[in-house]
Structures are given as structure tokens and as C-alpha cells.
TrEMBL record:
<feature type="domain" description="HTH gntR-type">
    <location>
        <begin position="7"/>
        <end position="73"/>
    </location>
</feature>
<keyword id="KW-0804">Transcription</keyword>
<dbReference type="InterPro" id="IPR036388">
    <property type="entry name" value="WH-like_DNA-bd_sf"/>
</dbReference>
<dbReference type="InterPro" id="IPR036390">
    <property type="entry name" value="WH_DNA-bd_sf"/>
</dbReference>
<dbReference type="GO" id="GO:0003700">
    <property type="term" value="F:DNA-binding transcription factor activity"/>
</dbReference>
<keyword id="KW-0805">Transcription regulation</keyword>
<dbReference type="Pfam" id="PF07729">
    <property type="entry name" value="FCD"/>
</dbReference>
<keyword id="KW-0238">DNA-binding</keyword>
<dbReference type="InterPro" id="IPR011711">
    <property type="entry name" value="GntR_C"/>
</dbReference>
<dbReference type="GO" id="GO:0003677">
    <property type="term" value="F:DNA binding"/>
</dbReference>
<dbReference type="InterPro" id="IPR008920">
    <property type="entry name" value="TF_FadR/GntR_C"/>
</dbReference>
<protein>
    <submittedName>
        <fullName>DNA-binding GntR family transcriptional regulator</fullName>
    </submittedName>
</protein>
<dbReference type="InterPro" id="IPR000524">
    <property type="entry name" value="Tscrpt_reg_HTH_GntR"/>
</dbReference>
<dbReference type="Pfam" id="PF00392">
    <property type="entry name" value="GntR"/>
</dbReference>
Length: 230
């Protein structure tokens, strides 16, 4: 065999670590030691070190004075970030209602077509879906004509993304999110801006509840791990 098409060991370790972080299989209070992880994933410390570096860049692990640990979300911070997200995204539509400016319909049409295709053939939930969701909302906000609002939303996503990436939505949730994206885009294209705003608010509220619930679950795992260790 010439190895063509084989996934490199470092990539396999990275994917396995990401999967186990998402499933909560790694105790949040235990340090991610290279030697132990190398034994678990059947690899040397070099690919494990590379995988941990990528996961740290992804925000899925965080560095403490004594090493790397699974990312541990802070509920209050997350709630505040979602409140800021709500303010930013609704303002994008409100400024259209208040000032009578039009959205850039071309980019919204492109997003509508993408989500319609995705709805017909849904992909696997994971980082790619998170990225597509972020792109949709950033596109809507930028289409409202204020690039500064979109830049601020990007900063919010950077801080929220680790918890969203850990979340594994069910097919039902993916279908609901897709339908809501399509509804928002269709209403904006039809000039029904107030209805689009109502749908957007409900959509963000639902995402907020799911992400906070996922973060709370992670905190419970943290407390459980601490209790077992003590």
C-alpha cells in the first residue's frame, strides 16, 4: 500500500480528542497529560502534542499554570455574550426598519439557496455546521450596512464558539435551525422585515437556551470530577 488517502496519525488523534471532548469522555478537572493521552490513543507524544496545540487554538482546551485542561465554560459569561449577540443582530434589522435602508439582497439570496440545499441534504453536525451558522448570521448583519456591527458579532462568536463546538445537536435541532434560517432569509427578501426580526429573536433565544444547557452540563461534569478526585 502506498498510503494514499490515509489520514495522518496526528489528524486521527486530533479528531479522536475532539470527539471525546464533545462527548464529555475526558474529565474536565483532569490535566490533559501527553503521556497518558498517547497511551489512550495509541500514538507517540508528538502527534498528541500537535493535536493539543490545535485544540487549544480552537478554544476547546485551555492552559492553566500546570498544563492543559478541557475548556470549562462560565455560565454568566456565556449568558452575557448571548445578550450582546441579541443586541447586535436585532439592531441590524431594526436599523432597516427605522431608517428605511434596504439589506443587500444578493448575499441574502445566496445564503437562502445554501440553506435550502443543506435542508435537502443535511450534513453531519460539527464544526463545519457551526461555521455555516455563524456565516449566515454575520452575512445578515453585514447586509444591513454596518460593518462595525458584524465585526462586533465576530468577536462574540470567537468567545462562544468553544461551547457551541462541543455541542452535538440532534437531527431535529439541525432541521429546526435550518428551517428558521430559511424563514428569516425569505422574510427579508419579501420585505417582511418585522416578521424576520420576530423569527430572528426566537431563533437566537433557542440557541441561547441550548448552549447554556450544554455549558451547565459541562459544569456538572467538572464538579463530579472534582468530587471523585477529592
Amino acid at each position: 500500500m502506498n498510503g494514499k488517502g490515509r489520514v495522518p496519525l496526528s489528524e486521527r488523534v486530533y479528531r479522536s480528542l475532539r470527539r471525546d471532548l464533545a462527548a464529555g469522555a475526558l474529565v474536565p478537572t483532569e490535566r490533559l497529560g501527553e503521556e497518558k493521552l498517547a497511551e489512550i490513543y495509541g500514538a507517540s507524544r508528538t502527534p498528541v502534542r500537535a493535536a493539543l496545540a490545535r485544540l487549544e487554538a480552537d478554544g476547546l482546551v485551555e492552559r492553566h499554570p500546570d498544563g492543559l485542561y478541557p475548556y470549562r465554560p462560565r455560565l454568566e459569561e456565556l449568558d452575557n455574550l448571548f445578550e450582546l449577540r441579541m443586541v447586535l443582530e436585532t439592531r441590524g434589522i431594526q436599523r432597516v426598519l427605522a431608517d428605511g435602508d434596504a439589506h443587500d439582497l444578493t448575499v441574502i439570496e445566496a445564503e437562502l439557496e445554501w440553506w435550502q440545499r443543506f435542508g435537502a441534504e443535511p450534513g453531519e453536525p460539527g464544526p463545519a455546521l457551526v461555521a455555516a451558522d455563524e456565516r449566515f448570521h454575520l452575512t445578515l448583519l453585514a447586509a444591513a450596512g454596518n460593518a462595525a456591527l458584524a465585526e462586533a458579532l465576530t468577536a462574540v462568536y470567537v468567545r462562544v464558539r468553544p461551547v457551541r463546538t462541543l455541542d452535538l445537536p440532534t437531527p431535529e435541532r439541525v432541521a429546526t435551525m435550518t428551517a428558521e434560517h430559511i424563514a428569516i432569509a425569505e422574510r427579508l427578501l419579501a420585505g417582511e422585515v418585522d416578521l424576520a426580526l420576530h423569527t430572528l429573536v426566537a431563533h437566537i433565544g433557542s440557541a441561547r437556551r441550548h448552549v447554556l444547557a450544554r455549558a451547565e452540563q459541562a459544569l456538572k461534569l467538572t464538579r463530579l470530577g472534582r468530587a471523585v478526585r477529592d
